[in-house]
Design a protein that fits this description.
390 residues, alpha+beta, 5-stranded antiparallel sheet, globular
Length: 390
Amino acid sequence: MMMYLLIVGLSGGVAVLLFRTGRATRLVHRALRRELQTIHYELKQAEHHPGRQFQLLDPVYRKVVFQVHPKVKMKRTELEQMVSDELNRLIKNKRSAILSSVTVIGRSALGLMMLSISLVGGYAAYHEAQMLNWPGSTQVASSSATILDETFELPTQVASPEELGQALAYHMSQFDETFSIRYIGKSRDFEHTMEEAWDWLEANHIYVFRLSRGGETEYRDYGGYVDLDVGLAYDMNIEEAKQIEARVDQVVAEMPVGLSDYEKVKYINDYVVLNTAYNLDSQASPYTPYSILFNGEGVCEGYALTTLLLLEAAGVEAKYISGEVQTGLHAWNLVKLDDAWYHLDTTWNDPVPNRVGEVGYDYFLVSDETLQKDHTWEIGEYPATAIADY
């Protein structure tokens, strides 16, 4: 889940930040970051040369639109605007940026991109602000919440991206639709801080991270601290989350006694496949374990999250993977057995159209080499698997 970010106003120490979440945005974000890293030195050298900056940034824009367009289901004009917005944000807020203000306007039908560049100060001045200690009543009462036997602590003070991620995780685990967080420190790059917080949340609490489908934030900058107001929408509610927790416990309790870890993984693979039919137009949100566990239908994200919850409840170490297949974005799991990792794709082990009583094992505990034949993912972001299939 990555954010569309738009600065709506900067006045009197108040900034409004709006975001929406989506898979397309994450693809755009990663592609732009990759391309900008390759021209970092050239951008720095072109600090006072707007024409040269345009020459460097225009190919980045065009390349990312070309790369991402086949992978997402959206109009070309909408994707172009998304790439423009994200490129604008990255240039303004990335620590390696040389521009204090760059506005990128989406291409017209003729494919033109305009850059309106306002240089305020130099590269060194952009980096000279330091973290501020802000005295006063910034402490909040320590709180904790539990979901699926995992405890989420609300930090007593939020002064780092990780602590901001922890605060977000706490509120999201409770399905809070509106909440406020006070962040202590500089806010010149607060959008970058927010990005790091979401990245931390995704890496450490993927289930909670996947609960939300986007929303809006507003932050007010007071110099030494920022007051952040968040509004989120969810695919589920707290009652459904509790039902999921109970059903996960029930499924694990019904496992035969004395299973090995391998047998537990097979039991869970079979349970998910035999009780689920792939269906995008499901009664509940197809991306949730609720739809899988209670309606017996859903899509890959629901399959992978449900598999993750069941594996963890059974005491088997597992991870959630976001990647791609020929038809588009996809999700599956990594499972650790005998100190080695293996891929498990319960979605692709489920025959389509659904065939009652039939379970596939082509994507059951396979290696990187095997899965790379028809799956792609950011390999460096996940543990390497065993050399051979299990």
